[in-house]
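Subject: for your reference before the review

Hello V.,

The reviewers asked for a structural picture of the protein, and I figured it would be easier to keep everything in one thread rather than splitting it across files. Below is the amino acid sequence we used in the manuscript, unchanged from the supplementary table.
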Amino acid sequence: MFEDIQLIHMNVKILRFWALLYDHNVKRYICLSLSVFHVATQLMYMMTTDEGITGIIRNAYMLVLWINTVLRAYLLIHDHDSYVRLINQLKEAYYELINRKDTYITHLLVKLNRQGQLMAKGNLFFGLLTCIGFGLYPLTSSERVLPFGSKIPGVNEYATPYYQLWYIFHMLITPMGCCMYIPYTSLIVGFIMFGIVRCQALQHRLRRVELAKEVAECIRYHQKIIDYIETVNGLTTYIFLVEFLAFGALLCALLFMLIVVNSSAHVAIVCAYINMILAQIFALYWYAHELREQNMAIATAAYETKWFTFNVHLRKHILLIILRAQRPASIRLGNIRPITLELFQNLLNTTYTFFTILKRVYG
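And here is what came back from the structure prediction:
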């Protein structure tokens, strides 16, 4: 169905396998039920644990990831039709660009598919590293611990055979959670990357425009881009706000954990956790920033037309494009602030500030 659009093919295929997109079968209920059950046992553990600070931070990190996983799966199911319409809209716009048979646009699409496929595989690779980290952590400990802190009232999870059964359950559910969590992010970033290419295609058309009909088509295409970006933003703005707050706190806690763990194996595992967070949010912030910049560049492309040779009516149309591009459509956090690299830098700066405070208090 999407084999030619490698940008989203892998992500849609994985989400469809778990029946979170298109298909509606028992897999959906299995993965959701097991994930909700797992989150419930984690919450029970966090409320009753007497572990030290490193154990609490580590399990809080995992709990946030699993809550995010369940939230993403719920949003995919709740807004299923909206996501399917957005995917179909991307598909139609993609083939519309292909059918123009423009060398420049074709090159953009080939590059887009290559980058999207690389990003999807890269994110899954980081997810695999994190899964391995979860599985290896108990092996590096001098006492019995589980990959995830979990507890069921009345059951001693560290006694044989419960410990072995819990360990097997955790190692089976981890890849499933990874395949629910990561493809969602890659899919959304893919939507954003395609929005960038549509902006670049519009800039290319504007620089070559000569007729009134072409200007009118560019205006309509610009509005389609705006509508497309607003649709993506509407589906993701609040979950990105939750992630911004949660991941900022987690990065701070994980950095603090680096100075209190007492083995190189634990340091390596914590570094893998940090890398996964950074890989996930950096790709999003990078492409969201680029999308905003390319939207603003539409104004420059419109000005670079031969507007001074057009009649007054066409000049007004060009002016409309320039004015609208001055308010660039963008992906926002909670519909409050655009996602940009500046925001990513602010996140890192704030995280490091709180980390230094924790370090001083701990010292």
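For the response letter, the relevant points are probably these. The mean pLDDT is 87. The first strand starts at residue 332 and ends at 333.

Happy to draft the paragraph if you're swamped.

O.
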